[in-house]
Design a protein that fits this description.
Two copies of one chain form a homodimer.
Chain A lengths: L4 H8 L3 H8 L7 H13 L6 H8 L4 E6 L5 H16 L3 E6 L4 H13 L5 E4 L6 H10 L3 E4 L9 E5 L1 H15 L4 E5 L5 H15 L8 E4 L4 H14 L5 E4 L2 H13 L9 E6 L12 E4 L2 H18 L7 E4 L2 E3 L13
Parallel strand pairs in A: 1-2, 1-3, 3-4, 4-5, 5-11, 6-7, 6-8, 8-9, 9-10
Antiparallel strand pairs in A: 10-12
Helix pairs in contact in A: 1-2, 1-3, 2-3, 5-12, 6-7, 8-9, 10-11
The structure holds a DNA duplex (16 and 16 nucleotides).
Chain lengths: 339, 339
DNA sequence: CTGAAAGCGCTAACAG
DNA sequence: CTGTTAGCGCTTTCAG
């Protein structure tokens, strides 16, 4: 049987309240009493029951993390940051993978609420219906959205300026001398990719003799990038550089380029987005736009904890992080002879 | 304010017990009553408080997952399997990254216990001290260890036969005609790598004219593999094939080979272990030994849930999965001219 | 089918 | 410094 405060109280001959005090706060308990209690507790293999404490105190010391898939290297980094911040603050994290299945997302969201988590960190959740948004709002627990355009709602959010990232990528390619480039984007209706594209196009078209980028849309995955790149290569636009929706799709693009018998960056330059760990591991190391993922995860938890403490849910907090260009070996000047 | 059963009971003019019954079990509540209760609940935005329920029922419907780092691609797959199985069973998962920091491991282990999780899934935890093992045993909650030699303890476990994996790798290289090979292993005292090495050596030395493998030890990471391979290449044993401790270290080895101006598999064949997602993404695609990671994660929570239900903690369950060779492009016959 | 009552294990005033 | 008294919100006998 698991031993409780009551068991200890009997054994030690003091009230359970005293036992509780002896075990937790160090205030107002006679040293001798405390020691006796501690001894008994140890002898009886006492383990605090946090469930009971949570109920009594009304705080779960737990956060919910709702993401599409921890296997996604971007998510992984964010989760690391979030987990570290939570651990440092004495909080636990409930992991929920949705695989972008909206039924699963909703179910997880509800059970997190029922479990009385003190905050929810969500990453790229499918569109929440109004009902769900309302449920979340009614719940009075803080929510922070990752990588969502600030406009989206009255939830808090931490993100990066995707437009700026697009600009950086475009400028980099222009500086290298490319004049015919492509943006292999994600889904046509996804805000972040749209912003990214806008920035890229702006940077590219602001150079006199540069053609407007070829833009293709598809899933921002390895295979999505692979397919898109194959299509692009077939269409034969004579593109000398490609900006990918993200690093993972860039890896797929790289594969397609390789299979076409071309080489990076000699024939085609390639630039990604996110700067996932792998970007520096693949060959050639991928030039990309860095997003401070770990810090974003940390920040998200900080915001959550702050809101949970203050209870000022009315005033959501938005935090935007900067991006920067990470030059590696997948980009260079365009080949001399045109293809 | 958050509404409780009591609020509903007042509004609906029935006892809280009835409300509870109406909301949960469908047994024994008049239809009209139930509907009235449900209506009131909805109107008041009622949310069940699982913390309270857990306390009353004595079950948390939560599992703890203690791993070194979800960023590790092997762990990622296991976690996916575990999470899916947990979700399917209506269980939640508490994520704990230890980064192999044993203080953090212990602290997490204790708080999981205090939180009354119904089971703990641990992966490659630093050596637990006797105290901790005892704490775990006393807790009477099931534990399953991943990838630990079955001998280790009286906890349950799911693993793969590393010896067998080593044999497969060795045989494959022998069949291709290699006669001078190396095993770039992990830490010298780690059971799995030892087994893996034994199997490999057995397969290699059972071929007449084959030299016993060169064995080097180091951290089984990207950089670890990189360093080890550099060292191996410098020592210039004339090795024509390398068996890596795992895929990630194989990637590092690949980098070193590349930097040495050699090519895979033309100059040196390379074979990994685990078959992580990336193995098929890198260039050239990595030949490796497959471990059913997802299934292992699933199996682990099945075992946990089974033990939790039966309460038969005395009889830990061991499940061993099979390995298999996945031939890809990083292995081929040795070069004709010796180097 | 429904109500009353007890209790899960712990905390938190409030007295003393 | 310590005991008493109420709960936290829900489930679960046990009656009726």
């Amino acid at each position: 049987m698991t031993t409780t405060l009551k068991d200890i109280s009997k054994e030690a001959g003091v009230d359970v309240a005293t036992v509780s005090r002896a075990l937790n706060g160090s205030y107002g308990v006679h040293k001798a009493t405390r020691e006796r209690v501690l001894a008994v507790a140890k002898r009886l293999n006492y383990r605090a029951n946090l469930t009971a404490r949570e109920l009594a105190v009304g705080k779960s010391h737990t956060l919910g993390l709702l993401v599409p898939d921890i296997g996604n290297p971007f998510v992984t980094e964010v989760v690391r940051g979030a987990e570290d911040a939570a651990y440092a603050a004495g909080y636990h994290i409930l992991l929920c993978n949705s695989y972008l299945d909206s039924a699963r997302e909703v179910q997880y969201m509800r059970s997190l609420l029922d479990k009385r988590v003190e905050g929810i960190l969500m990453h790229s959740v499918q569109t929440l219906s109004n009902t769900e948004v309302e449920e979340l709002s009614n719940s009075e627990i803080p929510v922070v959205l990752l990588c969502r355009s600030p406009s989206a709602s009255n939830f808090s959010g931490v993100c990066v300026n995707h437009f700026e990232g697009g600009v950086l990528a475009g400028e980099h390619l222009m500086e290298l001398g490319h004049r015919k480039v492509a943006f292999l984007s994600g889904p046509r209706d996804h805000g972040n990719f749209i912003e990214q594209g806008k920035g890229f196009i702006k940077a590219v078209t602001s150079v006199k003799d540069s053609a407007p980028p070829v833009v293709l849309n598809g899933p921002p995955s390895f295979d999505g990038g692979y397919q898109l790149a194959k299509k692009l290569l077939e269409q034969n636009h004579g593109v000398t550089a490609i900006f990918a929706a993200n690093d993972v799709s860039a890896f797929g693009i790289g594969r397609a380029i390789f299979e076409a018998g071309l080489s990076i960056p000699d024939d085609i330059s390639l630039i990604g987005f996110n700067n996932v760990e792998l970007a520096n591991v693949v060959r050639p190391p991928l030039t990309t736009i860095h997003q401070p993922k770990y810090e974003m995860g940390q920040a998200a938890v900080e915001i959550l904890l702050g809101l949970a403490k203050s209870g000022r849910l009315g005033v959501p907090e938005q935090r935007e992080f900067g991006v920067r260009l990470v030059k590696r070996s997948s980009t260079s000047a365009p080949p001399k002879k045109s293809r």
